[in-house]
TrEMBL record:
Subcellular location: Cell membrane
Organism in which the protein naturally occurs: Salmo trutta
Gene behind this protein: ALPL
Membrane topology: Lipid-anchor; GPI-anchor
Residue sites binding Zn(2+) per the record: 64, 340, 381-382, 457
Reaction it catalyzes: a phosphate monoester + H2O = an alcohol + phosphate
Name the record gives this protein: Alkaline phosphatase
Amino acid sequence: MKYKSLLLASFPPHLKIKLYLRVADQEKDPLFWNTWAQRTLKNAITLQKLNQNTAKNLILFLGDGMGIPTVTAARILKGQLSRQSGEETQLEMDKFPFVALSKTYNTNAQVADSAGTATAYLCGVKANEGTVGVSAAAVRSQCNTTQGNEVTSILRWAKEAGKSVGIVTTTRVNHATPSAAYAHCVDRDWYSDGEMPAEAVQAGCKDIARQLFENIPDIDVIMGGGRKYMFPKNQSDVEYPGEKKHFGTRIDRRNLVEEWNNRMKNKNAHYVWNKKELLSLNPNSVDYLLGLFEPGDLPYDLERNNETDPSLTEMVEVAIKILKKNPSGFYLLVEGGRIDHGHHEGKAKQALHEAVEMDRAIGHAGLMTSIYDTMTVVTADHSHMFNFGGYTPRGNTIFGLAPMLSDVDQKPFTAILYGNGPGFKVVNGLRENVSTLDYEENNYKAQSAVPLSMETHGGEDVAVFAKGPMAHLLHGVHEQNYIPHVMAYAACIGQNRDHCMSSSGASSLSAALPSLTALLTLIRLLC
């Protein structure tokens, strides 16, 4: 009876009885669990026939900071947003047939940052924290260690193989994750020359925004934020003309967007800066797209202006429609980048809603592609000091209280807690009483054990979900830099091509046989 009362107290009145009965009645019957397990077993048996096709398309979904506790909590949230208990819900990534673990450490850091990890899962080489697109021989912030230590990414490998390539992110397009796809920089914070030391500029090091347009010519699709880093210093922003914090930052006075427009004017290229412009495009008439929707990062999905800012799902849809026109296929990097920001700020609700939105984008991409010719990988760069617990009953709102008081200070606590971060607060020498706060408010900062202005990353392994051609090669526990090697192998790009000659010939022949048979039949009929 205690369990029942706790569970019912967690839900609004109109859901209480219905949800409790639905869950309890079927789950008391062993047949329910046995049937579910047998159905899962039959699906697993079908996977014994491995998909060894060549991947025409590659998609990497990167949930920045999306550790396994975040995946689990996002799953529960997704279910509860649909008025379900939540625990039994499946995320789109949960449906992927192959799962592995990735070791995230940097070459000089036990607990990684997003730059060194991005170099690993995009360039196939582990690197130092704070650096992008360079090997561990490069030292952070030391410009003279750049040259000769550059490493290339799978995005470049795909482009050189004739595929279309794209980058979609909810952060700045020159932030740590996307920048490792195209830049070689010893400092992730060198967004424009306005953020670089004068001596680094004089020594010939290039800022990341500039490298976006110069290193890999004609990246087909670029969408995200970071508009201010493309414009001359003090130039007002098109969307926020009166806000100085959004003014251009470039000391060299270059207008990178204008330069891009001039260079691409005869190539069916379009620059857009708001949702209306983006969705008014006909993807069939667009070969190149540059979308910069905010001066900095895009807003959290919970705070997004639905009229002006596209969702991650909307950006992914447009990107795939443009990229898939290439008969040679495409490579697409998609980052749910603000999961990380929500956690750093201790705002679990923001972080988890970002994760749910990325999962929605994963599902939508799945509807637009095929597992027979598209390899899709979902992973994270690192985890966070985020977790949830406290013996919460089934169906407890993920942002709610644990069903007990602390037996030390006799105060309630939320299920979600951080190991460190800005949520630490002492009132009159004691832990703050969370029952006096709105702990389900969007920007509520969950309590933390150690006070920090910004919560830190976590060091544990992260999950890797995979489906499509050669997805079975992602299994067990791997170094993070293994990921792009597998994806390149699946698509016959980069350094692993020896296996492609025989398999491609066989696949081409098998693909041609139906057409050949039809042609022979037609000849017989005509004769």
